[in-house]
What we know:
homodimer; alpha+beta; Arc Repressor Mutant, subunit A; 3-stranded antiparallel β-sheet; DNA-binding
Amino acid sequence: MEQLSPDANLLKGNLDLILLEILEAQPMYGLEIINEAQTRTDGYFDFKEGSLYPALHRLEAQGWLSGAFQDSDSGGPRRKYYRLTDKGNRALERKRAEWQRFGRAIESLRGRP
Amino acid sequence: MEQLSPDANLLKGNLDLILLEILEAQPMYGLEIINEAQTRTDGYFDFKEGSLYPALHRLEAQGWLSGAFQDSDSGGPRRKYYRLTDKGNRALERKRAEWQRFGRAIESLRGRP
DNA sequence: CCTCCTACCTAGGATAGCTATATAGTAAGC
DNA sequence: GCTTACTATATAGCTATCCTAGGTAGGAGG
């Protein structure tokens, strides 16, 4: 487990991409997303509920995700599972491209006199 | 020249890194930084003065940049040249490492079932 | 002079993630 | 039945940062 988490500002504008990446393969509910993000990044990503839920609502309002409540399979409160819509899949492609473009732009700044 | 500029939110938290990258090789003044960023990224980065100047002041207050006024060599108003301090160089290294780490974390989210 | 260009600066607004808390259902212990 | 703990979703208020939209001022050229 790594302790370091990213500067909060790095997430701005990238949280959408991150959520779409995680939900691309399979639908998940809120806390599951937080756990998955932690596991897959060795604890680097550690989203707070106060960041996650508004973001999920935002993406749902944009039509990129659709959420549906479902009873827990282990006896807890109901869970809201989010899955990517077709629109969300297209958005993911755009976000990936934008991320690549941004990275290339940063690199192109280096090594100049 | 490319028209597309990055989503404003992508810049949040990365503008510091960008400015340090640009100023690493040589000192520059405000508008020169804007022009250089445009040129080096084929117009992708197009910083507004309202973003740039507060950022420069912030970095100067943190001790990462030091600024000094200097008369223009082409007869305009005086220019404020910013150069990286030693502290700024160390900050640049940290920001680069953080950027790499963040990029790796994003990639590690992909291709999972 | 008067206009234009350069150059620096700032106030106010919008956005998005974080802190902290609220709400509620289920399960376990006594 | 009551309390405690865990899970799960939700949101109000804070803060940081970038952008919009201006302002100030010096020099060049007609």
